[in-house]
Design brief:
Helix content is 60%, strand content 11%. With 428 residues, it is α/β, with parallel strands linked by helices.
C-alpha cells in the first residue's frame, strides 16, 4: 500500500492538470457524487489562495491530490501543506491511462484533470505518495535557499555600489579590492572619497594594503605614488556630498549582509556535518562548502522519491522541452520548475568544470559545437545528474578516477576529448 502514514481520513479527492496559463482542477468530496470543476491561475498568489480555501472548506481530514509528476513547480509549492497528500503521476502513466479510454489520441487539460481525479479516487492504493524529507534535510534546504538569496542581495548591493563609485570615485574600484569582501567595506566606510583617502596619509594607506593586498614593496610604493597624484573625477560639491552619504549607507547594508552570511554559513556547516550523506556530496569536484549542502538538500534522503535520474532532470528544469508542430520542431528550457533547484545544479556544473577534467572537456565540446556558455553548462548539469543519481542510490561517493576509467573502457568519444585536453595541459 502506498497510502501515506499519519492521522486523518481522506475527505476529498482532487485531480490537477498544470498548464502555462491556468490549472484545471476537478474536486470530489467523499460521500458526494458531484464533481466540481474550476481553474486556478498560474500565479503563486492564486495557487496559495486556492489552497487556503480548501483548508477552510475542509478543516479536518486530508485531501488526496493527483498531478503530473513533471510539473515540478506545482509540487514544489503544494508540498509545504501537510493536509495535502500529493500523488505525482508520471506523464507516461497518465498518457497510457488516457489511451485506454481515448483511442483517438485526443488530449486536453480538462480530460487530464478528470482522469487524474479518477486515478487518485479509484486507484490511490496503487499510487506512490510524495513523502517529505526528514527534519534535518528540510531545515538544511531552507537555510541553503535563504543563503543563496542573501548572496543575491550582496550582488545587488555591490552592483549599486560600483555604479555609484564610477560617478565620483572610480579609483576606489581598484584600490578597495573585491567589492564583496569585508575589506572593501572597511575602505569605503572609513574613506568614502578620494579627498578622505589622500588625507589619510601614506603610512595609513601602506598599513591598509599590507593587511589586505600583500603587494611587493616596489609595487606598493608605486601604488602609493599614484594615489598621491590622483585627481578627482568631479569637483561638484553637491554630487560629492550626496555620493559620500549614499556610499556610507550602502556600506552599512553590506556589513549587515556579511554578518548574516557568516551566521548562515556557520549554521549550514553545523547542519551539514550531521547529514547522513555529507561524505557523498562533500567529495564532489567543485562542490565546496556552499554547493555540497545545496546538493544534499536537492536530493534529500528518501531514495524512493525519484525512480530515475530522468525524473530529477525534468523536475529540476535541467532537461529541455521539445515541442513540435507540423514540420517545425524546437527545443527550449523548462519554465515551470523550482528555480533554486535548477540554479543549484547549474552552479555546481559550472564549478565542476574547473576541478574535473572530463567536465571541462565536455563543456569545451559543447562550446565548439556552437552552444552558448549557459547552454553548455546545462548540458553538463544534465550529465552530472545521471552520475549523482547513481552515486546517491548506491551510497557510493563519486570517484573521478573510476569514472575516467569507465570512459576509457567504453571507448567513449568523451574520453578522446579528455585525453586531448590532458595532453594540451601537459604541454602548457
Amino acid at each position: 500500500m502506498a497510502i501515506p502514514e499519519g492521522n486523518g481520513e481522506v475527505v476529498a479527492w482532487i485531480g490537477l492538470d498544470w498548464a502555462d496559463q491556468r490549472h484545471e482542477v476537478r474536486l470530489q468530496a467523499v460521500g458526494r457524487e458531484q464533481i466540481e470543476a474550476r481553474t486556478v491561475e498560474q500565479k503563486p498568489e492564486a495557487l496559495h489562495a486556492w489552497v487556503a480555501e480548501l483548508r477552510a472548506r475542509f478543516p479536518q481530514g486530508r485531501i488526496a491530490l493527483a498531478l503530473e509528476q513533471s510539473r515540478g513547480a506545482v509540487i514544489y509549492a503544494l508540498m509545504n501543506y501537510d493536509f495535502l497528500w500529493l500523488y505525482p503521476v508520471p506523464p507516461k502513466g497518465l498518457a497510457r491511462y488516457r489511451q485506454a479510454f481515448f483511442t483517438s489520441g485526443a488530449k486536453s487539460d480538462v480530460v487530464d484533470a478528470d482522469l487524474l481525479l479518477e486515478m487518485v479516487r479509484d486507484h490511490r492504493d496503487r499510487l506512490r505518495a510524495w513523502q517529505p524529507d526528514e527534519a534535518l534535510t528540510r531545515q538544511l534546504r531552507l537555510l541553503v535557499e535563504h543563503r543563496r538569496e542573501t548572496v543575491a542581495d550582496r550582488t545587488r548591493l555591490t552592483n549599486r555600489w560600483g555604479a555609484l563609485l564610477k560617478s565620483y570615485f572610480p579609483q576606489a574600484l581598484e584600490w578597495a579590492g573585491e567589492r564583496r569582501d569585508p575589506a572593501a567595506c572597511e575602505f569605503l566606510g572609513t574613506w568614502p572619497s578620494l579627498q578622505a583617502w589622500q588625507a589619510a596619509g601614506r603610512s595609513t594607506q601602506r598599513k591598509f594594503f599590507r593587511r589586505h593586498r600583500r603587494l611587493p614593496a616596489e609595487e606598493l610604493e608605486k601604488l602609493l605614488d599614484a594615489i598621491a597624484q590622483a585627481q578627482p573625477l568631479t569637483r561638484d560639491r553637491a554630487l560629492l556630498e550626496a555620493s559620500v552619504l549614499m556610499t556610507q549607507t550602502l556600506v552599512e547594508q553590506l556589513r549587515a549582509v556579511h554578518t548574516a552570511l557568516a551566521r548562515l554559513d556557520a549554521a549550514q556547516a553545523k547542519l551539514f556535518a550531521q547529514h547522513p550523506d555529507q561524505d557523498l556530496f562533500r567529495r564532489l569536484p567543485g562542490a565546496g562548502e556552499a554547493l555540497a549542502p545545496r546538493l544534499a538538500a536537492a536530493f534529500g534522503t528518501d531514495r524512493q522519491r525519484y525512480q530515475s535520474a530522468e525524473e530529477i532532470q525534468q523536475f529540476s528544469g535541467i532537461a529541455p522541452v521539445t515541442e513540435a508542430s507540423g514540420k517545425l520542431r524546437w527545443v527550449h528550457w523548462r519554465m515551470a520548475c523550482p528555480k533554486f533547484l535548477r540554479q543549484t545544479f547549474h552552479e555546481f556544473a559550472d564549478a565542476s568544470r574547473k576541478k574535473s577534467l572530463w567536465a571541462q572537456a565536455y563543456y569545451q565540446q559543447r562550446r565548439q559545437q556552437g552552444a552558448s556558455h549557459h547552454s553548455a553548462v546545462r548540458a553538463l548539469a544534465y550529465k552530472w545528474i545521471r552520475i549523482l543519481y547513481r552515486c546517491w542510490q548506491s551510497h557510493t561517493p563519486y570517484d573521478e578516477a573510476v569514472y575516467l576509467a569507465a570512459l576509457r573502457r567504453r571507448h567513449s568519444p568523451l574520453w578522446l576529448a579528455v585525453a586531448a585536453l590532458s595532453s594540451r595541459e601537459a604541454q602548457a
